[in-house]
Amino acid sequence: IEGTLSRSQYLCITIPPLIMSFSVPSDVAGGLYFLDGKRVSGEGEKTFPVYEPRSGTVVAQCPLASPSTVDAAVRAASAAHSEWGCKTELERAQVLHAAARLIRDNLEEIARAEVRCNGKPIYEARVDIASSADTLDYFAGIAPAVLQGDSMDLPGGPLTRFAYTRREPLGVVGCIGAWNYPFQTCMWKIAPALAAGNAVVYKPSPFAPASPVLLGEILTAAGLPAGVYQVVQGEGETGQALCEHPLIRKLSFTGSVATGQKVQQACASKNIKPVTLELGGKSALVIFADSEVKSTVAAAMLANFLNQGQVCTNATRVFVQRGILEEFTNELVKEANEKLVVGDPLNDNTRVGANINEGHLNRILGYVESAKKEGGTVLRGGVRVHPEGVENGFYLEPAVITGLNDDSTAVREEIFGACCLILPFDTEEEVVRRVNNTSFGLAAGVFSKNLARCHRIAAQLEAGTVFCNSYNDTEVNVPFGGYKNSGHGRENCPDTLKAYTQIKAVYVNVQDSLEHCF
């Protein structure tokens, strides 16, 4: 064997081509479809304007994919899947690891492109892009072990009968992403899907369409076969066509509860397919009087002001035990005034960037006004600002508000903006009841030096993630998802990888003859 075959041939592993050279294009908003391994302009279709949040200017006209365009993209992905799905987990892992290396090699340029797409500060974008590379490495690394089948002896003994299982790709999966983390939410979906051997048709949010196209170029440079990853752009009609397509075998969606309901209905309208929904939240941070105040203030700022408050796990409801209420409130306002520098998100000293668009900014301002009308006091922020050099961007001075009750509009509804609502409480039993009094259940946090209390409360909170003495931690090997109206299914973790496969059971009779019972 050694005289005729290389080791790689002997092991039946096809080594992918060497990594092609890759650089981030200067115009990341040019050609916003990604089909059959390359950018496509989508000429002849209706378009919508794409805004750069930091400057408020229109930077591109993005095509709206018609149902026929979606159909062509799905069918091309289905054809490409036959090659990708037949590769071993190790072969697929080599491509995904190569893509992760390309991301790290071009991290700064990709992060700057993400800022232009989304408006978040550059220091946050760098973390998001690095984490995305980790996600590729993680799923590429665990796939060979997690996707193995089982073998079972059957009555009669292994010499006569046994069974085994195979984990097989679903085929083509559809993914609809969010605008608050354009690159990262795309990666959370496509990394496990590709590692499991599926092809993917991805529809970004129309508010942040560019990053997933850039990711397609990276994957292609790393050796992903053309057509395995497709990007189509659009709004409701495009999303509906993707959900209803008979060749789509699974759909993963991140977005609002209202749209998530429509997605689930559409996915059951023409055929039956599994759906993962990562939806909104109205999370809470509970701070007990025995906590160290400086740490709780840092947690409250992480829970409210990252990414301009445009984070689904954000804890806009900050419940503070009365014994430290005044001290906490004063310290939070002081820290916010000192640390929350609003400005051009491409500047390293900026800590609060631009909101995604004018409409969303006005929506947040509307919640501030409703809080005032319902008896709230705005201790700082809550107004639009115009930083030097980017005066026309969509900027908000983060707000800290007190004086509201649990029935107030801002306390009940998801704001999805930088508005921290401080709510006093007295007892443990009371605060658990109030935290759970919502239709959402994505995340919650508890601060106390009494770890027994933290564990006790964590067990009672109706949330998919509970942070004890921290907030907004995210690791790729830890499940992420919600309870109640915050969705179902999980992202990250081994269970996510398994969810992109289907199990086949195979019965084997090794005897020469088969007896029957008739």
TrEMBL record:
<feature type="active site">
    <location>
        <position position="278"/>
    </location>
</feature>
<keyword id="KW-0560">Oxidoreductase</keyword>
<dbReference type="InterPro" id="IPR015590">
    <property type="entry name" value="Aldehyde_DH_dom"/>
</dbReference>
<protein>
    <recommendedName>
        <fullName>Aldehyde dehydrogenase domain-containing protein</fullName>
    </recommendedName>
</protein>
<dbReference type="Pfam" id="PF00171">
    <property type="entry name" value="Aldedh"/>
</dbReference>
<dbReference type="InterPro" id="IPR016160">
    <property type="entry name" value="Ald_DH_CS_CYS"/>
</dbReference>
<dbReference type="GO" id="GO:0016620">
    <property type="term" value="F:oxidoreductase activity, acting on the aldehyde or oxo group of donors, NAD or NADP as acceptor"/>
</dbReference>
<dbReference type="InterPro" id="IPR016162">
    <property type="entry name" value="Ald_DH_N"/>
</dbReference>
<dbReference type="InterPro" id="IPR029510">
    <property type="entry name" value="Ald_DH_CS_GLU"/>
</dbReference>
<dbReference type="InterPro" id="IPR016163">
    <property type="entry name" value="Ald_DH_C"/>
</dbReference>
<comment type="similarity">
    <text>Belongs to the aldehyde dehydrogenase family.</text>
</comment>
<feature type="domain" description="Aldehyde dehydrogenase">
    <location>
        <begin position="42"/>
        <end position="506"/>
    </location>
</feature>
<dbReference type="InterPro" id="IPR016161">
    <property type="entry name" value="Ald_DH/histidinol_DH"/>
</dbReference>
